[in-house]
Specification:
476 residues, alpha/beta, TIM Barrel, 12 helices
């Protein structure tokens, strides 16, 4: 595809496009995306008077991240961020040798902060599960804390993040099986019975439909709410500060990608889904009124493909901001073995981002793209392999944040999926096995290295830092 054709997929304010060639069967990038217009060096010149920070006293000076209109504030200043998913951080923070590595955790946080990453999305709940490909060990079992050491690891993580002026988003459940999640809750209240993921009688979308039964099971929800209350009332064993009083915690998130089900057959259950969101969000606000609450939604793709579903879920008063995720390969936009499919990624991603910015404006709430990722070139897993397609995809996504911030819009932050840092696959086949402790960003059901950004990905770190610098230098 020519530069001229590729430019059709980029916002009008892009000054360069991307072209691609295969050299001896290896993907090469001929030119690189520019960041956005205005370029970084011009960022502070863009009509500053239009975006000046309101005077002190007119906004909330709280150290807690708070929402005013469609923007975040903290300590009286606008809060925008480059973030990462480091779901395993509490595990690394454990002092138990079977999972913990506090020295590595400190190195990870130092490297992330040095490259402009200041917001981490972290798993704060995992359930002892009978499901294949579920994380082991897990924090809780049938409502009881089974691994206090992992929560001690979360205590430690929050302390270390505070030292580096980082913020945390803590998710409290999972629609998918890799951390136990909703299907595991259903097994706890159903005599251990659960959907057999290996049974051909249960193809997609049966798993999604089964997991969504969680919202209609009062007993399962009660156990879930009890766990949330324990966590909200937890006192950090290192600082003596209650979690609910810790401004390091930006947001409590109801779950990772909580879908209401799948297809039209699930529309009838929307009232129960919305009631689950409202009741859980109100419970969190009751205990932790100073902290934000978010849903963890994938956007319309995870909400029956419906704009109305997305808006109804995020219009609930106690949901402080909207979220969306973006997975080009999983959604059929991209064939990693065929680089010529990449323009479709750009086209579809741009449309998906623009749609959700529009919806956030209608909701008058900020929006965060808290998961997005792309495999390494040609589907390689090794940290030594190239990731040029990913690099360009990230830059393209970041350009929308840059533009939104310059314009005073609602799209003010991202958390890429996922940070692998100094981790590495424990086995040559890149598959996770119970007992593995060299965590990377990819959860147990996926090849270790699939979507991970490693400490050795120097170009990616440069991209993150450049994006962070633009946000920091943007008019206030």
């Amino acid at each position: 595809m020519t530069k001229q054709n590729m430019a059709d997929f980029f916002p009008a304010n892009y000054s360069k496009a991307v072209t691609y060639s295969l050299v001896s069967g290896v993907l090469a990038i001929v030119s690189v995306l520019s960041a956005c217009s205005p370029p970084p060096e011009e960022a502070v010149k863009v009509q500053q008077h239009q975006h000046e920070r309101p005077e002190k006293g007119r906004i909330n000076d709280s150290p807690f991240v708070n929402v005013q209109g469609n923007r975040f504030y903290a300590d009286g200043d606008p809060y925008r961020f480059v973030g990462a998913n480091v779901w395993y951080a509490a595990y690394l923070g454990s002092e138990n040798d079977d999972i913990g590595d506090r020295e590595r955790l400190a190195r990870e946080l130092d490297l992330l902060k040095a490259n402009g990453v200041t917001n981490l999305r972290i798993m704060a709940a995992s359930e002892n599960s009978p499901l294949d490909n579920s994380l082991s060990p897990a924090i809780s079992n049938k409502g009881e804390i089974e691994r206090e050491d992992i929560l001690l690891g979360l205590d430690y993580t929050l302390v270390e993040m505070a030292k580096r002026k980082m913020k945390a988003v803590l998710f409290l459940n999972n629609f998918w099986e890799w951390s136990g999640g909703m299907v595991t809750y259903l097994s706890w209240v159903n005599d251990g019975k659960f959907i057999n993921l290996g049974d051909p009688a249960h193809p997609w979308p049966e798993f999604s439909l089964y997991s969504a039964e969680f919202y209609r099971n009062a007993e399962a929800i009660e156990i879930y709410h009890q766990y949330i209350e324990q966590l909200l009332e937890r006192t950090n064993t290192i600082t003596g500060v209650a979690y609910k009083d810790d401004p390091t915690i930006m947001s409590w998130q109801l779950a990772n990608e909580p879908r209401p089900g799948e297809g039209k057959q699930s529309e009838q259950y929307m009232p129960q889904y919305l009631e689950w969101i409202a009741s859980t969000a109100k419970l969190i606000k009751k205990h932790a009124p100073d902290q934000l609450v978010s849903l963890g939604s994938e956007g319309t793709m995870g909400c029956l493909g419906s704009v109305d579903c997305f808006k109804a879920a995020h219009a609930i008063e106690e949901i402080d901001y909207s979220t969306f995720h973006m997975w080009p390969k999983n959604w059929g936009w991209y064939d990693v073995k065929d680089p010529s499919s990449f323009p479709a990624v750009i086209k579809n991603a741009g449309e998906y981002i623009e749609l959700h910015i529009k919806l956030a404006k209608e909701l008058n709430k900020p929006i965060v793209l808290e998961e997005f990722g792309l495999e390494r070139d040609l589907g390689e897993f090794s940290p030594e392999s190239s990731a040029k397609m990913r690099e360009n995809f990230y830059q393209y996504v970041f350009s929308f944040v840059n533009n939104s911030v310059h314009e005073g819009g609602p799209f003010v932050g991202t958390n890429f999926w996922a940070w692998g840092g100094y981790g590495k696959a424990s086995h040559q086949d890149a598959r996770w096995r119970a007992g593995d402790k060299s965590f990377v960003g990819d959860p147990p059901q996926e090849p270790q290295g699939l979507n991970s950004v490693f400490a050795s990905d120097e170009r990616m770190l440069q991209i993150l830092k450049a994006h962070s610098d633009i946000l920091l230098n943007s008019p206030r």
